[in-house]
Amino acid sequence: MAHLLVVDDQKSICELLEITFRKEGHRVETATSAEAAMRRLQAQIYDIVISDLRLAESSGLDLLKYTKEVSPSCFFILITAVGDYEDAITALNYGADRYVRKGDKLTEELRQVVRQVAESLKLKKEAGYLRRELRKLTGLDNIIGQSAKMRALFELIQTVAPQSSRVLITGESGTGKELVARAIHEKSTRAQTPFITINCGAFPETLLESELFGYVKGAFTGANENRQGLFQAAHGGTLFLDEIGNMSLTMQVKLYRVLQEHKIRPVGSTEESEVDVRVIAATNKNLETEIAEGRFREDLFYRLSVIPIHLPALRERREDIPLLARSFLDRFRKEMGKKVEGIDPDALRRLEAYDWPGNVRELENTIERAVALETEQTISIRVLPEKLREPTGADGLVLPEEGFNLQEHISKIERSYLMAALVRVGGVRTKAAALLGMSYRSFKHYAKKYGV
Fold first, then answer.
1. In sequence order, which ranges of 44-145 are alpha helices (DSSP H)?
2. Which secondary structure element, helix H or strand E, spans residue 274, and what is its range?
3. Distance CA 29, CA 6 (A)
4. DSSP 212-272
5. 350 vs 347: CA distance, rounded Å
6. What is the three-state SS of 162-221?
7. What pLDDT shows up at residue 140?
8. What 3-state class would DSSP assign to 378?
9. Mean pLDDT over all residues of the chain?
10. Taking a C-beta distance cutoff of 8 angstroms, is the pair 356, 313 a contact?
11. Cα angle 431-435-440, degrees, rounded to a multiple of 5
12. Which domains does the chain have, with CATH numbers?
């Protein structure tokens, strides 16, 4: 619903309208003078301002001009008396969006106008949501998989989606963390509200703060008007914080406070406003290791990971590779207008044998490339990337024709297993050593050798 500021020098009018619009589900604040309203507009971002034209110490026209200066997108409704017709026309010329005459039906007329504005705001948010969906379309209409691990994931999503609890999604890059977050949102009671995403690693600290919390005019150079942050834009919906492990410690403190108090303060403001947002975070890092090394706050970790969800790497669910490959093939052949209808069995075996360090995203790119290059009706080995075209041994290993350094390859594998064991046990080396069937002393030796 909308965030309203009601301005009238009669306190009884303010109280009446506050009660009226709170019953409608809106967030309402009041001010009894233009000066008090201007102070609120300096510190907060409102969707609608409702003001009497005649205020005790100044004109509602002054407040109108100021509102349009600091928040041009704010909808301004002017309340006028019967004899204020000419002033009302002047107000419309200054940018007022509507005026409503005082009288017995004032409350009902205002309620109708606010409903119309709130519906318009809702449609704008939905339109913005659809545009974001189109821009961020990854090619999967939903999460695809039939392996035991994916079936367990589907069940978990169905269980946690109706709740409001925060979720922390972990997994390697390219495993589909945002897809899971979207699925949780779409199956929740917030499905008709905004789902907004932000990559926390893509912004420097100061810019991330203004993106999340918004800012008021004059907060910094270039802040020429009030701007709503993503927490406010996602009010009533879901905010997906991707790559949360890249957030600075300073921003972690500020985020923790928002999660604890459900209030945000725009940059440059002294006022706070409540927000109702379900936060879903994701990272490809082991946050417990990050905590141990002082790069992530433990208190924030526990706030975020009320419900932890770990996504398996594609190499851990190879039985899903044919299903995913077919899904990508169907999409890309339609998009490109190609007559490629299948995948050669030898090519499919190469896809299944490969470890896919880039996970589902890498598989998607590989199939897109293959469809673009293929001139026949079936994807063959010759259109696969070179690393997939190499001869495959009977055990499924890929052996380059020119050979390779076996010892170096084995060293990479040993290091990978050390890292995987540490991730599995949350960075505890004694447990990792036991998991690999080696002594703690040997584990330390190899960890030092490979710089783990």
1. 60-70, 85-93, 106-135
2. strand 273-274
3. 6
4. HH-B-TTSSTT--S-B--HHHHTTTSEEEEETGGGS-HHHHHHHHHHHHH-EE--BT-S--
5. 5
6. CCCCCEEEECCCCCCHHHHHHHHHHCCCCCCCCEEEEEHHHCCHHHHHHHHHCECCCCCC
7. 33
8. strand
9. 87
10. yes
11. 55
12. 3-121 (3.40.50.2300), 148-312 (3.40.50.300), 315-389 (1.10.8.60), 406-450 (1.10.10)
Q: How many helices (H) and strands (E) does the chain have?
A: 19, 14
Q: Looking at residue 138, what is its pLDDT?
A: 33
Assess contact for 427 and 447: CB atoms under 8 A: no
Position 123 scores a pLDDT of 67
Instruction: Name, of 28-42, 107-121, 169-183, 397-411, the range with top average pLDDT.
Output: 169-183
pLDDT in tens, 86-134: 766 777 777 888 888 887 788 888 998 898 888 877 766 665 555 455 4
Spatial separation of the C-alpha atoms in residues 194 and 172, rounded to whole Å: 26
Q: Which residue has the tokens 């403190």?
A: 253
Per-residue CA distances from 257 to 253, 395, 397 (Å): 6, 53, 50
pLDDT at site 134: 44
Estimate to the nearest angstrom the gap between the alpha carbon of 369 and the chain centroid.
Answer: 29
- Judge whether 117 and 48 are in contact, CB under 8 Å: yes
Distance CA(177)–CA(183), nearest Å, equals 10
Of 297, 233, 239, nearest to 266 (Cα)? 233
CB-count burial class (<10 Å; 0-12, 13-18, 19+) for 41: buried
- What's the pLDDT score for residue 413? 86
392: DSSP letter = B
At 278, give phi and psi (nearest 5°): -90, 125
Please give the Cα distance from 187 to 156 (Å, whole number).
12
Q: How far apart are CA 43 and CA 299, in angstroms?
A: 29
pLDDT (0 to 100) of residue 225:
86
Give the CA dihedral 440, 442, 447, 450, nearest 10 degrees. Answer: -170
Q: How far apart are CA 433 and CA 438, in angstroms?
A: 5
Give me 438's structure tokens: 């080696």
Rounded Cα–Cα distance for residues 316 and 150 (Å): 10
pLDDT-based confidence at 395, cuts 50/70/90? very low
Quote the CA–CA distance of 327 and 229 in Å, as a whole number: 37
For residue 344, what are its two tokens?
Answer: 């050669």
**DSSP-based three-state secondary structure for 50:** strand
